[in-house]
Amino acid sequence: MDFDLSWVLWGLPIAFVLGWLASRLDLRQLRIENRQAPKAYFRGLNFLLNEQQDQAIDAFIEAVQKDPDTSELHFALGNLFRRRGEYERAVRVHEHLLSRADLSKAERQRAQHALALDFLKAGLLDRAEDALRKLEGTPYEGQALLALLAIYERTRDWPHASETASKLDASGQGNFSGRQAHYLCEQAANAQPAEAEALLRRAMQMAPEAARPGIELAALQRRAGDARAAFNTLIEHAEAAPAAIPLLAKPLTDAAQASGEQEKAREVLHQSYELSPSLDVLEGIVALEPDPEQARAWYVKHLEREPSLVAAAKWLSGEKLEHEQFHKQVQGALDHATKPLTRYRCAACGFEAKQHFWQCPGCQAWDSYPARRVEEL
């Protein structure tokens, strides 16, 4: 049977027409989807600018459904979920991004960082730690190390915190020697006396200007019954860290009285007071003054240099009043008024406390409490 070529001649134009119609339909559908996706995106952006986060999330979900390959929309949606506290949904978005084979290296690193933040905000510290460690050698390494340091401080994992602080120090992220000295002091608090002393001496070498290592080493020596060694430690530390003398004044006074070194202690405290008057240094001088009248006179000297309600109340407590029968009530009112003035205040968050903290209980900042009381700030 002969093949009829007329069918080929008729078929070619028909196939061409059908192909053209199919391409036009595809292009039309693509244009419709491309118009809808930007509209949903800009609508979501508008909601976001107006702080309508629920509507923004709905709009971005619609945009992602229209164009599932757009990574920027996924990042925006994941960040919105995290800000809303919907950490599980944020994790799903960022894990979906990481599962994509077409993601570029930079976007994969960005998604890994976003996933670590999701875990961190959700309080899943072990998973956050694993995610942050994967960012080593990426542009997010510095941020990851800072986040890891916060995790180790929060979990009181001081050896890992010290290791991470060393990496940050080496990478030029700042000077972490003072913070590393605190980590050694924290480890010393739970160590045996010999090991604790070695840790505290390392801390003093690492941060000579820090007050804490010397104070805690002296306290360790006092507990071991060696008041003279404690006194010598505090004297050496006062020379290395003169700004910390207000914090050293009370333990220095106690150690001096226990070791019979009152004269040397008075000399150090007098020199510090002349350079920078301080209530704590003043109290140390008063406690070491053998003559009670001379001791009380120091409060008047302080008032001549600094207006101080605390010093005035201290002086008045030993003074005879014309109406002595009311002295107790007047003194009680003054003591009540001066209590807030003798607190310490965090310079970072304003949290006030009766005692001095090395790490603020409010904002967790280190060394944010000045050595001076509220009245002196």
Automatic annotation (TrEMBL):
Annotated transmembrane regions: 6-25
UniProt cross-references to SUPFAM superfamilies, sorted A to Z: TPR-like
Keywords in alphabetical order: Cell inner membrane, Cell membrane, Iron, Membrane, Metal-binding, Repeat, TPR repeat, Transmembrane, Transmembrane helix
Alphabetized PROSITE patterns for the sequence: TPR
Swiss-Prot/TrEMBL GO biological process terms: lipopolysaccharide metabolic process; regulation of lipid biosynthetic process
Residues annotated as binding Fe cation: 346, 349, 360, 363
Membrane topology category: Single-pass membrane protein
Organism domain of life: Bacteria
Entry's Gene Ontology cellular component terms: cytoplasmic side of plasma membrane
Compartments where located: Cell inner membrane
A Pfam family that the UniProt record links to this protein: Zn_ribbon_LapB
Domain LapB rubredoxin metal binding stretches: 344-368
Cytoplasmic side: 24-377
Sequence ranges of the TPR repeats: 37-70
Gene Ontology molecular-function annotations: iron ion binding
Stated role: Modulates cellular lipopolysaccharide (LPS) levels by regulating LpxC, which is involved in lipid A biosynthesis. May act by modulating the proteolytic activity of FtsH towards LpxC. May also coordinate assembly of proteins involved in LPS synthesis at the plasma membrane.
Family of this protein: Belongs to the LapB family.
HAMAP family on file: LPS_assembly_LapB
Protein name per Swiss-Prot or TrEMBL: Lipopolysaccharide assembly protein B
Organism: Caenimonas koreensis DSM 17982
